[in-house]
Amino acid sequence: MFKRKPFSGTQQGLVLAIDIGTTYSGCSFSVLDPGVVPEIKGVTSFPAQPPSGASKIPSVLYYDSVGVLRAVGAETLLESTIEQAEDEQWTKVEWFKLHLRPKSSKTADLRIHQQILALPPDKSVIQVYADFLRYLFSCCRTFIEERMLSGGVGFWESVQDRIVFVLSHPNGWEGPQQNSMRRAAVLAGLITENPEDRDRLHFVTEGEASLHFCINNRLTVKVYLGALYFLKDEGIIVVDAGGGTIDLSAYSVSDPDTNTFEEITPSEYKLYGTRFEEDIPRITECFDQTTKLQFKDNREPDLDIRSGQMKIAGLTMARFFQPSIDTISEAIVDQRRDACKVITTVLLVGGFAASPWMFSELKDTFQQLGLSIYRPDTHVNKAVSDGGVSFYLDHFVAIRMARYSYGIHAHPLYNFSNPEHQRRGFFISLDDSTRHKSSESHSNASPNTVCKIFLKMRDVEISLSHFDVRSV
Ligand SMILES: Nc1ncnc2c1ncn2[C@@H]1O[C@H](COP(=O)(O)OP(=O)(O)OP(=O)(O)O)[C@@H](O)[C@H]1O
Ligand SMILES: [Mg+2]
C-alpha cells in the first residue's frame, strides 16, 4: 500500500494547490515539516460562507462601474451584495475560466462561446484570473494563520517566500494557457518574475490531480480475498465531472512496487456545451444550490406551484441532466476504445459525482458495457485541489501520453513546379536520414527513387509527404 515518506527537506515549507473551477473554486495545502510525513488539508472556511458551507466558493466576482473589484466568491451570494450590485450597476463575472480555453471550431466550443458572458470591457481574462487568485491566496493565508497552527502568523511569514504553488487546469490545456495562468499568478503576487520563482509554480491537469486524489482515497485498489491489490494490467478511467468541463484520463499501474501509474491514452476534456438560460440567473442559482443537488428520482410529481414554489417534474429534471450524462458516457466510450489496455473501471470525481441521479444513471449505462464505476465517499468536489497537493508530494504518474505528435507521413505526388512546395522552403531527401535543400538535391534525384519532402514550419520540422520522382 502507498505510504508517503517523511519530508526530507531541512526547513519548513508549504505547498498550496489552488483549483479555479468554472463554477466553484477551492484550495488545499500541506505543511512541510522536516522529518514529518506531510498531510493534505483543505481550506474549509471562506469569508461570507456559513460555517457549515461547502469547502469551495463560487468562481464569481463583481466589479463596479469603474472597474474596482467589489465582491468575490461567497460574498457575491450575500443578499446585501446582490442588492448593492443592482443599485450601483456592478458587473458580475462568472465562468471566466472558460475565456482561457483553447479555442476550437467544434460545436460545443462555439456554443460555450455564445453562452459565456463577456468580461467587463476594461478587464482581460488574465486580470480577472489574477484578482481571483489573489483573493483565494489571501483566504488561504487567513485560514492557515488563524486555524491551522499555533503561531500561524509566524509560520506564514517564515515560509511565504518559498511557498510552492500548484495550479490545476483542464486536461488538454497546454503552453499558452499555462503561460496566461503564470502571468496571472505574477500579477496576483503569488510569485515574482524572477527566474528562481519559476520553480515555485507547478501546473497539473485536473485529470492527473483527480487520479492522485483517488489513489489517496484508496480507490485504485481492489479488495480480493480480503487482501488489497492494485489494478494491474487493467485500465481505469478517472472522470472529473465539474461544472463546466469533464476531464477524462486513462491510467494503469506501471509499477506496483513504486506505486507509479502510466497514462494509457491521451487525456481529454469536454465542454458540457449546455447551461441554463441567462435570463433566469436567480432561479438557476437556487436550483444549483438545492434541487439539483438532491435530485435522485425521476418519478417525482408533476409541475405544481404551492406557496410560491414551483415543483419541477422528475422527468423534466432528468432532462436537465441528460446532456451531461450523454457527454460523459460518450467520452468514456471513446477513451475506452483508444486505450491500449482493457478498461474495467471508472472513477468519478468532481461536483457532479455527488449527484445521486447522475451516479445511478452512469452506473446503469456502464454496467451494460461491463464497466464498474466508483466515486469517493466524501469531498468529491475537492478532488482536484487535494490531488494537486498530492501531485507535488507523491508524483504517482511516471508516463504520460502526448496529445499531439508532429510528423505526418502521407504520399502525395511531389511537383517541382508546385509554388506551394517552393514557397515553404522545403527539404527533400533520398532517404530518411539525409536531407538536402530541394534546389541541391532534386537534380541528383534519379528516376525511380522514392523521396520525402519535409516542410519547415517555425522550429518544428514536419515530414509532410513522400514523393516519387518517377511521377514528376
Ligand atoms: N449533489 C449534487 N448533485 C448535482 N450536481 C452537483 C451536486 N453537487 C455539486 N454539483 C454540481 O457540480 C458542479 C460543481 O462541480 P465542481 O466544483 O467539481 O466544478 P468546477 O470545478 O467549478 O468546474 P470545472 O472543474 O468543470 O471547471 C456545479 O454545477 C454543482 O451544481
Ligand atoms: Mg473542477
UniProtKB/TrEMBL annotation:
Q: What is this protein called?
A: Actin-like ATPase domain-containing protein
Say which species the protein is native to.
Lentinula guzmanii
Highest lineage ranks of the organism?
Eukaryota, Fungi, Dikarya, Basidiomycota, Agaricomycotina
